[in-house]
Structure of Uroporphyrinogen decarboxylase:
Amino acid sequence: MRQAGRYLPEFRKVRESHEFFEVCRTPALATEITLQPIRRYSGLLDASIIFSDILVVPQAMGMEVIMNPGPHFPDPLNTPEDVKKLKEVVDVDKELGYVFQAITQTRTELNGEVPLIGFCGAPWTLFAYMIEGGGSKTFQKAKTWLFKYPEESKALLLRIADVCVDFLVGQVKAGAQLLQVFDSWAGELSPYDFDQFSFPTLTHISTNVRRRLVKENLPATPMTVFAKGANYALASIAASGGYDVVGLDWCIDPVEARRIVGDKVALQGNMDPGVLYGGRDAIEAAVKRMSQGFRAGKGGWIANLGHGITPGVDPEDMRWFLECVHKYSAL
Ligand code: CP3
């Protein structure tokens, strides 16, 4: 669950004395924060996700990114000319070796308790940040690129995808046991434009990561894709995306999602994180409904929220959510 740290006092404590990307770049701190929820909810979580951020990839490509409190790029890519400012060749071992070290250290400290998930941002989502220079409501700048400079956009998207491939393979080499690709802004595209600009880069990543894992004698590693807001594309993602698990936001009913994807992929999701504000009865009812929905069909289910935990959630309500998941998925 992305950006999960902020609702935990132990996370905020570390952040009091360390800047966000400093934490990402310091393997001992990233390891410590990765382990915080595992310790707090001991026995209730089935996996951990490495503490990092999707924006370490634009940094590796040569861009400056600061967190204040949301992401901010002081010098975004305004026109296709600006692509010249990016590094021509990105050596992920050199630029992102700190993530690999954090993964290896976390695996050691987890000592087999739960598996460790590695991740990256999807090319379209990273492209949007690199051009907008931060979050956006209209995506005016990123869309100007897509629709005014479609060929240059596709070239940049593919360039980002190639860095993602090297980065994900490096994470497996370092010890990651599942890989998740976050396309947080997929829902900003029409079905046609998702097919033009995002889907080909998602399949580029799944195909090439798997190819490289075989070639480099690394473990075959399951892959998850989360294309937030792109439920219109679920059927094609499941049929030909090349992923083992499809993450869902809360805007689709579990039974409907299973009907659309068939039984080829596992599903992950999808309670509205906002329910965590509603108290125990609301949480229990939502978990019960979600669990019954996902377990009615064939195929695997990974219980999760439909997006990240927001800062104001009470950690004890989060515990209750996890307890309810165990209760209703065992029935
Ligand atoms: O949850 C975790 O702690 C796991 C590690 C993780 C983070 N970010 C840490 C983080 C993961 C998997 C992410 C993914 C991420 N980062 C995504 C994809 C998932 C999604 O949210 O759709 C995106 C789009 C980002 C970019 C990003 N990073 C944003 C938009 C923000 C600000 C969020 C906000 O609401 O203010 C971040 C910051 C960030 N990344 C935090 C954490 C714990 C909080 C920042 C802080 O500590 O000050």
Remarks:
- The longest strand covers residues 116-121.
- The pocket of coproporphyrinogen III is lined by residues 1-6, 15, 20, 49, 51-55, 67, 69-71, 119, 135, 182, 184, 228, 308 (CB under 6 Å).
